[in-house]
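[scheduler] slot 2 assigned
[scheduler] job type: sequence-to-structure, two independent chains
[scheduler] chain ordering preserved from manifest
[runner] begin chain α
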Amino acid sequence: MVDLRDKKLYRFFEILPGLLTWLTLILIVLLSFVTPFFMAIFIIAFDVYWLIKTIYLSLHLRVAYRILRTNMKVNWLEKLNNLQPTTYNLQHLKSWQDIYHIIFLPLYKEGYEIVSASIEGLLKANYPKSKMAVVLCWEERGGEQTRHTAEAIEEKYKNNFFEFFSIMHPGDLNNEIPGKGSNTAYAASYIREHVVEKLGLPKDKIIVSSFDIDTVVYAEYFGVLTHTFLTTPEPLRCSYQPIPLYINNIWEAPSFARVVAFSATFWHTIKQERPNSATTFSSHSMSWQALEDVGFWQKNMVSEDSRIFWQCFLRYDGNYRVISLYYPVSMDANVAPTTSETLKNIYKQQRRWAYGVENVPYFLFGFIKNRIIPLKKKLYYGFITFEGNHSWATNAIMLFILGWLPIIVGGPEFNRTVLSFNLPYLTRLIMTFAMLGLMSSAVLSIILLPPRPPRFGRFRHFLMMVQWILFPVTTILLGAIPALDAQTRLMLGRYMDFWVTPKTRK
């Protein structure tokens, strides 16, 4: 029986992120009318803070990128062979070849060519296929098209790995939100019975990779993953996060979609340098032992990728963390048949990502119930997560829209002050310096590009540079507003369902 007080407390925590965000935006508007002078000072201070933060994050981006480039040049299988078993941080393991990998690929309505590209990436990996089990978990609600795709993929690839499973997730199960979490959880229960327990595989020697269906691994992914797993203290208490590069179809994407895709890539590259504040996102890996200890992915969640981190964090009393792999996987940018559809799909995808705010009430409630997790760790993770969600929904709006309000609504008295005269110049100066940092990111985006398809001319490279003038617009319309939308929905109790981003390659 659910305790009524607990229910009310949880509901309060659901309201809290959206409430703080809306209070921030409303207060800025009101105070711009009431005390424009002090608001102008606040805006200048905020702009300076944002500039410093931009410089700080840019430095992290470059450090992480250098490590990534170095790691991509390493033969990690060779490093594994040279790694002495005495250095392993996993007890009773005599050889890295005793490690098995289970890869979950959830399929909804994606086409054969997308699924095939992902599995071809697994086949090209510099790692023994005899140690890899592939689980294609497909949705019954995807219809006959999905069934045919799953059957064709199974027929072609079933003999290429240690095991290959094609598992249908029924569409009529109760207490589920149809989506990646419920799909992979259903498949994991099957694998536990028919593979792990049947074959007697040691649970602490299995690494699980939960991938999106468009995830294409680079050649050394499983090598660097296994090496990191064996050399990390307490490897069973960690998730392992690669860098998502949204470049599979980047040449086909319209300019605003490319800006959004690269912005996401840069942010997650930066987070590689800040693992103590990171949670899992999208495609990632973890131990089977930890996954089973928490009962697999929750089936009623939109943001199952980050929720699994919090499940483990609470289950192990705060002794769980994310380890940065500094190694990429490539995924699709958001591309639809038309520009308007692409715009709509990006908005929905960003809103779904931002709905990760649903983890805030989960871990806050968990922190209250768990008295073992140190208070310092609770405060740290609470602040980092709150600040991240709040900034996502407010910063761009404050920078590019509300920051001009004191001048617009301050009245004649304020507009005669020196501060009123200098505010636009100071703001432009700060923005100029920030944009210089953005231009260096633009150069980095060119370096990350895959080879240009012959059907695109060289002028496309030029467009890849100038597209960044769209950044202020995209960060508001396709960043802050979807985040505000997600937080408002949670605040009002209008809970979201899982929305699958359509995958299109031209």
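[runner] end chain α
[runner] begin chain β
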Amino acid sequence: MTDAPLKLFNSLTRSLEVFEPVHPGEARVYTCGPTVYNYPHIGNMRAYVFADVLGRTLSWKGLKLTHVINITDVGHLTDDADAGEDKMEKMAASQAQSIWDIAEHYKQAFWADVRALNIRQPAQWTVATDYVAQMIDFAKGIADKHCYELESGLYFDVSTVADYGRLARANTEEGEGRIEAVEGKRNAADFAIWRKTPPGETRQMEWDSPWGRGAPGWHLECSVMSGEVLGFPFDIHTGGIDHREIHHPNEIAQNQAHCCTNGLDDPRNSGAKVWMHNNFLVERSGKMSKSSGEFLRLQLLIDKGYHPLAYRLMCLQAHYRSELEFSWEGLGAALTRLKRMVMAVEPLKARHAELVSASIDRPGAEPAEGWTLKQVQGDEWGKLQPILAKFDAAMADDLNTAVALTALDDVLAAKKVDVAKKMALAQAMDAVLGLNLFGLTRADLRIRPKSATITEGEIEAALARRKEARAAKDFATSDAIRDELSAQGVDVMDGDPLGWEWKLS
């Protein structure tokens, strides 16, 4: 019997823990989503690939998943340390557009990337501006005991909760991440719950509150939305490692105040039982960021001819808690591996279809509700059983996707095994990793680079002329056509049914 206990690394306790849901049979997960003031870069998207794999793994383990991702469209300042201008207001001003139009445009761009990376839709997208009334109520509930008012807004006093900064291993005097210096603050780490609109100014997004007209703080949003939808305590809160230093400690402090809990020796007092963080995607030049000019967003990869699932595979080849270095060479290697996997799946699908058409039973048919470990458990898998055990153990070991990928490779390479069972097991593994191998063809992976100057029709016409030349033993013409195509960024592949590929730089 294969069913390794699921162990996850809890950033709050700095330890691997066997996952035990707060509500038996359920898993409630909250993921910090994007601030929709700009396009997400591929480093941002690593967080959602990670959260998606986590959710798929929880489903694989037979848990009923409720996954919530937020959309921040107000309150997030230009510096995560509670400083600067509101990101949304700043972008709207720079573009001379409505802040609502800015939010809608970049929200749709983010969702396009989510779809391209085969990230499953969460149970709910929570949009910050839909919860402002609840945020005000939340702040009112904690204000008397935990907050104080200054000219600029309502501030949370971090000294009023125990263990502030434990997540970041910070303290209120000398921590890893410090907050903006504001005259009148009681503690350096105190942060804004509500920011008043300065006298004489008008924001596009502002609301009336007991502390004056203004907007909520970024940290308040996630506390309110996670608690409203999932209830405190819920199971897992995810985000990028940059959230571990300021944003999430502030969330935790608010949750402690709201729930009237004390210290964090019991992680549930933080609002979530487990806090999980993916590490950075880095370039050789350093951590990826949205600096001025072009930055690496998913559409740029596609424009260069790389299928977006090659980037997903690149992410899966590294552990989510390790830094992942981005390079075009690495992305190219991931695309090559993805192509090989699809090439291994295509004959498997064809053979399986033959069996089905011949009315041969297929015990591995995909269940209507999707794959879980329960559907593929048992002793009937023969030579495939150790591979299943390897895969399950890898995913149960804090989402070790790199090893899980090798198990999937092992299944696809397995010889002299039942085709239906091989198909079922490969489908199940693919469902957890989310590579959509059974929905792709090699042609789907052939993405036209934006820089290409020749059309697919022109390529096919040239290849037809080349075929005629070869049939006539006119090898000089054949070679000339091949060289012309090569100069235009096309690799001719003799003997391959696909016929040709784009050269990618």
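[runner] end chain β
[qc] chain β: Confidence is low (pLDDT under 50) at residues 171-179.
[scheduler] slot 2 released
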